[in-house]
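BUG: 3D viewer hangs when loading the predicted structure for this chain

Environment: internal workstation, default settings.
Expected: structure renders.
Actual: progress bar stalls at 90%.

Input used:
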Amino acid sequence: MEEDLLHQAYDPETFRKEGQQLINQLSEYLKETLSGYGPVLNYSDPKEQLELWKKDVSESGSGVDTANILKHITRVHHPRYMGHQVAPPLPVASLMALLGGFLNNGMAVYEMGMAPTAMEHLITGWLCRKVGYSSSARGILTSGGTLANLTALLSARRNGVAEDIWNRGYSGGLAILVSEAAHYCVDRAARIMGLGEAGVLKVPVLENFSMDTSKLPGIYEAARQKGLTPFAIVGSAPCTATGSYDHLEALADFAEENDLWFHVDGAHGGPAVLSEKYKFLVQGIQRADSVVIDGHKMMGMPVITTALLFSDGATSYNTFSQEAEYLLADTVEEDWSNGAKRTFECTKLTSSLTWYAVLKQYGEPIFEAFLNRQYDLARSFSDLIRERPNWELACEPQSNILCFRWAPLGIPSEGLDEINENIRKKALEEGRFYIVQTRLKGTLYLRTSLMNPFTGTAHLSELLTYLETLGQVFLGNE
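Structure tokens produced before the viewer hung:
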């Protein structure tokens, strides 16, 4: 009986039938969603969702109701999706993710992932060249910016600190310099490494929320006076909250002057290296020791895939060097094909399939077209906001991220925070648009990440009108 069940579960004809049905459903979903039909999400609270799926899973043997799943997700393909920094994936990339999941080739050693390992080497080599690195640069793909930033800082410590922490343990006293507006994962990575709060030296930001590099010498010297040894500086390209880019050339100069590892968190905006129009934003990135670029943000990949690039490829091999004889044999020549020597992960996703397929099918222009359009759209949105009374911008957009708030005259600041928070909450519950919120220097702002290439200025104008209507209700005017 058990053997019959297994044969049934792996039956090729059942797979063909269910696969065709799924692709047909997703094709209709894509057609409907891209047109802007229906809500972005049908919001319900966590308890309701849990009860819904608890009841569903109790009915085992009835098959998966994909249509029901599609009713209870956030539709990132919808042009009124303007929330988090996740792209609506290019369909060919999603198909490659399906292929990778089906083949299930873990990539710890070359034999378990021959094609995707070679593809990863090609893809990361291409990205290294676009960043401006020499032929000695190397890269890896890993699962997300958080893991990539942690790996980069581990490499910085392994290659830039005399103490052998990998083998002997950490005795304290090390620190990194990072903008106070940087993504929280950098702070988290430093704490995972044992640096603690004192080892994360937060640098204030300018009015546009990029790092105030004039503060670096004072913070650096103060840390030295306290007995700390800074070993790395992290530049944001851009920071997450406002999409503002740090001055990478200035950071590279400071790193060079003080013998620091220079790391660029370009998870969101690193793909600007592929844009003739916007590559000025990342001037200086070619001087970084390491760079992170997410594929699932501005490059149209499914979650979750990130490139970590090293200017000196040799440094990537000693970050995690250890004995694992059953997997990793010592070699005289460069062993790029055994990824576990350079990644935190052993088994990892074959995400190189998605990058390779998009690059092969559309070439580099698809990435430049996507980034240019979305960055241009944010600038158009800022123009719309300035043209309307009672709206404020947190700062001018540098990327496709924009922070703003409704601020009718006569309402105190704390009252504006409450009104904008209520506006966002009501918009979430109604599901017509999906936006998020953030706090900047204590003030609450509404926030959009314009990730969808089918979002237009008409949608953005409609959003402002809609939010104004909600605001008037909270003021008691409607």
